[in-house]
UniProtKB/TrEMBL annotation:
Top-level taxon of the source organism: Bacteria
The protein's name: histidine kinase
SMART domains according to UniProt: HATPase_c (SM00387), HisKA (SM00388)
Alphabetized InterPro entries for the sequence: HATPase_C_sf, HATPase_dom, His_kinase_dom, HisK_dim/P_dom, HisK_dim/P_sf, Sensor_HK_Regulatory, Sig_transdc_His_kin-like_C
TM annotation in the entry: 54-72, 78-98, 105-126, 132-147, 154-175, 187-204
Keywords annotated in UniProt: Kinase, Membrane, Phosphoprotein, Transferase, Transmembrane, Transmembrane helix, Two-component regulatory system
Catalytic activities: ATP + protein L-histidine = ADP + protein N-phospho-L-histidine
Histidine kinase domain ranges (all copies): 232-447
PROSITE patterns according to UniProt: HIS_KIN
SUPFAM superfamilies (alphabetical): ATPase domain of HSP90 chaperone/DNA topoisomerase II/histidine kinase, Homodimeric domain of signal transducing histidine kinase
Pfam families cross-referenced by the UniProt entry: HATPase_c
Gene3D superfamilies: 1.10.287.130, Histidine kinase-like ATPase, C-terminal domain
Source species of the chain: Chitinophaga hostae
Length: 457
């Protein structure tokens, strides 16, 4: 009867050990960050939060360091120095507690004034190198106080205390001096704290500059969004206002017979109502975009949006005797921002009207594939040459006059491309001079929403 000796496998493998180390490290970093951020809350001014973190960062190492020396001095029979070290430990703990309860001014008084008095006394009494901790207190005072009188007066007091300790005769002392190696260790630790404070100040300055740069970029983005909103407002209001101006001019010149006044009044009322609806939409959108234009996609049917576009340009279509051939199936749905898609379609249809000859036709078609929907707006008007096509979606374009003298700003197509890209879509154009232009918009296919009003053509 034989047996096989299996190789020994340790209970804790190498990967498990690495995972344990990583977990311990993450927990340590988590607890460290929690302590350093004691008293810091989101509504706190940026610079004040960094000053609070600086005090926490300086108070935290004092707790184990001073508590260790408190035990050591008590063991060596230096009971007064042990009590002073314990007082420093309690002061550091008090700073964290005061920050927790948001008593920031009290925390600064405890850390700065109490510590300065304590270090001055221990430096004079024991000659233990505590005077170098006064330099830390001076640096911290300069970093956390903006008042020049506080910084100046307290700076003079600390410098005077430092010089008194340094130049006081070493042969005269009130208590037996601590060992030389203890003095060296205190000086080394105090200078290390000084390096930490200055390094953190440098980090704060760098972080502050980055925060300012982020705010500057955010302001630039908001200014660009504001320009876009102004362009949308101008584009959406210009057409109804032009119609109103034309009707009122005809009224003033008496070109409407009395029998046609009722019909004209109905048209005028319809245009005023349309303008009011446009203003409501712009107000709603501008309120939503107070912090910048945001894309909020959802599922919606395309046909009702196209109906709104046609209604918007109804009178211009009649004035230019344009035939609108719209082939949009009622079951086509998009997943995009409805308002932004509406802006794109209004711009494209407006351009088609602008550059169409009187009596011609504009064709709008929509086709869907498994994942996308293509919407094409085709006119048979003036068209564009290759040079115009190259600059069409840039700020270098030179807007041309329409067939009836209409003039654009050139911002509409830039907005169309940007809104299309924000909705994970694209826009393209094909044009031939004097033969017409076709703009094609690709957007993500959506699901047909429930209780969504539909339209048919």
């Amino acid at each position: 009867m034989g047996f096989t000796i299996l190789p020994f496998k340790p209970i804790f493998g190498l990967s498990m050990l690495k995972g344990l180390k990583q977990s311990l490290y993450q927990h340590a970093v988590h607890y460290w960050n929690n302590i350093v951020n004691v008293g810091v809350h989101p509504a706190m001014p940026y610079i004040e939060s960094r000053r609070t973190m600086l005090l926490n960062l300086l108070a935290l190492p004092c707790i184990p360091f001073m508590f260790f020396y408190s035990l050591l001095n008590a063991f060596q029979g230096r009971y007064l120095l042990s009590a002073l070290n314990l007082s420093t430990t309690l002061a550091a703990i008090t700073v964290l507690l005061l920050h927790k309860y948001r008593l920031y001014l009290s925390a600064r008084v405890v850390l700065i004034f109490f510590s300065a008095a304590l270090y001055t006394f221990t430096g004079l009494y024991f000659h233990n190198g505590a005077e170098y901790f006064l330099l830390n207190i001076l640096v911290v005072t300069i970093l956390i106080y903006d008042n020049k009188w506080i910084v100046g007066c307290f700076g003079v007091l600390i410098i005077a205390a430092f010089m008194l300790i340094v130049f006081m005769p070493q042969s005269w002392y009130l208590a037996p001096p601590v060992p030389t190696e203890r003095v060296w260790s205190n000086v080394a630790v105090s200078l290390l704290f000084l390096i930490v404070a200055l390094s953190y100040f440098k980090y704060v300055q760098s972080d502050y500059q980055q925060e300012i740069e982020k705010q500057r970029e955010a302001l630039l983005a908001m200014n660009k969004d504001k320009e876009k909103l102004f362009s949308i407002v101008a584009h959406d209001i210009r057409s109804p206002l032009a119609t109103l101006e034309s009707l009122l001019d005809m009224f003033q010149k008496g070109q409407y017979p009395r029998d046609d006044m009722e019909e004209a009044a109905a048209i005028l009322h319809s245009k005023v109502a349309q303008l009011g609806g446009t203003l409501d939409n712009v107000l709603r959108w501008s309120t939503r975009s107070m912090k910048g234009i945001q894309t909020r996609p959802r599922n919606f049917l395309l046909a009702p949006v196209m109906t709104e576009v046609l209604h918007f340009f109804e009178l211009i279509i009649e004035q230019k005797d344009i035939s609108a051939d719209v082939q949009v199936p009622v079951n086509i749905a998009l997943y995009a921002d409805r308002d932004q898609v509406s802006v794109i379609l209004r711009n494209l249809f407006s351009n088609a009207l602008k550059f169409s000859y009187g009596g011609s036709k504009i064709k709008v078609t929509a086709l869907q594939t498994d994942h996308q929907v293509s919407i094409s707006v085709t006119d048979y008007g003036t068209g564009m040459d290759l040079q115009q096509l190259k600059t069409l979606f840039t700020s270098q374009q030179h807007p041309a006059y329409g067939t009836a003298g209409e003039r654009g700003t050139g911002l509409g197509l830039i907005l169309c491309r940007e809104f299309a890209e924000q909705n994970n879509g694209a826009i393209d154009v094909e044009s031939t001079p004097e033969s017409g232009t076709t703009f094609t918009l690709w957007l993500r296919k959506g699901d047909v929403p429930v209780n969504e009003p539909s339209a048919s053509y």
